[in-house]
Amino acid sequence: MSAGERLIVAVQKKGRLAEGGFDLIKRAGVKLAYGKDELLRKAENVALDLMLIRDDDIPSFVASGACDYGIVGENVLYEAQSRTERLQSLEIVLKLGFARCSLKLAAPKDGPIKTVEDLQGRSIATSYPGLTAKFLAERGVEAEMVEMGGSVEVAPRMGVADAICDLVSTGATLEANGLAAFETVLDSEAVLVRRSNVAPAKADIADLLTERFKGVIASRQTKYILLNAPRDRLEEVRAILPGNDAPTVAPVVGREDVVAVHAVCTEEVFWSTLEKLKSVGARSILVMPIEKMMA
Q1: pLDDT recorded at residue 36
Q2: Do residues 68 and 9 make contact, with C-beta atoms less than 8 angstroms apart?
Q3: Are the CB atoms for 123 and 40 separated by under 8 Å?
Q4: Residue 35: pLDDT above 80?
Q5: Which of 85, 151, 180, 242 has the fewest CB atoms found within 10 Å of its own CB?
């Protein structure tokens, strides 16, 4: 297959998004060849090339046609689209379920800013001025954007701005700087995006990769549960199993009163779930991950 017929996917070169992207690609069965090129990684078993670039540049590379698809954070994509009209054509194909974070408005705990309305006429330090300004405009609030490339959380303490709009994962950084979040601007995760008019010769490769990604995501979110349960309490067990409609029920050798239950659960299985199962008589409960899954 010629170089022009190979699907080109942009992936972040370094960082959390890069780790998640490469893990997803690996789990999708793509074997990458090792080479000296720091910009391009070729797949050995699929007509696929990965272009390794900065996350902020991924939307532009995809929209320009240098890449066909890209793995990028929603926060980066939407900020880029808010600044550049030609990036509006980029389409989200799939949400990938990793690199989750939230873009939040925050202000000093002991200060007067507690709501979005309190930002009227104030200044906000942020690396996402486009998203922040759009969010405030939708609320009818006017504020000055103070664009910063980093260290946003120190801006109020240093007198640079009255409040901030920044990415938050655990909230520990806000706490350390005496800030409290009061509004979420965007809940973000990694997404697979594509440009319009991807060459037909690449469509089958793109479809194959997307379906495999869906399988990997489904398997991460799904657990396989095995347990023994009293036959006369089977309906109670079934009601407790999360996200399962039809478990497999099999006899247990030498026990007429007990059955074996096998279930694929599409919702998260908590310790409390196991405790509830035990309370209705379930025993020998096993919860196992699913490596691959295809509907």
Answers
A1: 67
A2: yes
A3: no
A4: no
A5: 85
